Amino acid sequence: MAVTASDLARATTRLRETPGDWSAWLEVAAILAALGATDDAELAFATIGEGARVSGRVALAVACGRHLAELGSVRGPELVDQVIETYATGGPHFAFTTPPAPDDPPSIPAPTGEPLVQAREVIEKLGAWLTARQDQQQPPAPLLSALSKPGARALVGVMTARAYPAGTQIIQVGAPATALYWIAHGTVSVSRPKPDARASAAASGPIAQLAELHSGAFFGEIALVGGTTRSANVIATDDVWLLEIPARAVETAAQKQPKLAEVLAFHARARLLSNLTRMSELFRALGQEDREELLAKFDSQLVPAGTTFIHEGKPNDHLWVVVSGTCVVKAAGSVVAELTPGAAVGEISLVSGDPAGADVSALEPAVLLRLAKSDFEAVAKRHPKLLAEVQKLVVARENANRALFQDASDLIV
């Protein structure tokens, strides 16, 4: 849609009235660029980037720097260098602190003149306020602070700032993992087809909402760490601006800077466990403290394609939860079900002690969470409600199995 000078006047008024709204700043900058006011747009993006840098909004600062660099502006590399100097420490060596709030913005009377003149005046006066804070001791940036300055410079150099309108699907379940994403501005929703949904990952069906991620968060690390396909859908809740980092660049950086690999693995595990609490019925009987105690006992397993991790007729001493990838259930040599992300398997034999009634194997490289029977029993002994809920689930699963596996992804062996 074409923009006009009237759009610029409206956006400038909004910025003057809400100078702390990053969306208002970005709207003015984008309209200036669309109107061909290149120098003014560059100044606006540079001001936003510097304001973001000194206030701890690292992804937004990097996005502004990369955008300016792609436009050929010298402001871009200068801003990126300042961000790296502030945040690339080679490890989280400084405390997690909240940057101080800025002083109240100056009161600006309504500017007069042409819309472009008005925008210049507002950017000049409010820009001085936005960037006036002196650098404080900032909290670590999840990606940059694990890297040395050369490593951070190399990683930032391959980042691309991309805009996605509200409603755009950014990641689809089952798609190859080609990039890591860092939210510069906006919100995305993360969801996954429910384990009992017959619909394929690409089709409509029951959906479990897993999380909303906001500015500064990153996503896509689960598939990168596990070497699997995407385990969730990610959709832009509103207009978002993302930094896209190619998977190969992330792998190269992690090999050279092991701390980055540790950061990604830590966040991947935290996200897996958080997703599990939203997807599994096992945790409904537990309070937050007990839930965290049980979650801490799960360990993650990377299962190569073709590997059988539950064997028919043999004891099974673990509860397994599929995080990413697809697993297949075979009884008497025949495929009876496929398990997709979010599905649990092994509950019946875990509780009853009977041998597994089927083989369960990974159809493709998969990430699984595993809970030992002894750990489950220790928690269940202290919380009888948990065991009661599991018994109900077992009965429901057995009934479903006897009903000719009406829903294959519900199969529990």
What does this molecule look like?
With 413 residues, the chain is an alpha+beta fold. The chain folds into three domains: 153 residues, no CATH class; 120 residues, Jelly Rolls (Sandwich), CATH 2.60.120.10; 130 residues, Jelly Rolls. It is built from 14 helices and 16 strands. It has a four-stranded antiparallel beta sheet with strand order 1-8-3-6. A four-stranded antiparallel beta sheet has the order 2-7-4-5, with helices on one face. A hairpin with a 2-residue loop joins strand 12 and strand 13. Helix 13 packs across helix 14. The longest helix has 22 residues. The radius of gyration is 25 Å and the shape is elongated.
Largest sheet composition: 4 strands, antiparallel
* Order of helix and strand elements from N to C terminus: HHHHHHHEEEEEEHEEHHHEEEEEEHEEHH
Give the fraction of residues assigned to helices: 40-55%
* Total beta strand runs: 16
| Strand order in space, largest sheet | 1-8-3-6
Number of domains: 3
- Strand content of the residues, in percent? 15-25%
In DSSP terms (H or I, runs of 4 or more residues), the helix count works out at: 14
Q: Can you tell me the residue ranges where pLDDT is under 50 for at least 5 consecutive residues?
A: 92-98, 197-204, 403-413
- As a whole number of angstroms, the C-alpha radius of gyration is 25 Å
Distance N terminus to C terminus? 55 Å
Mean of residue pLDDT values? 82
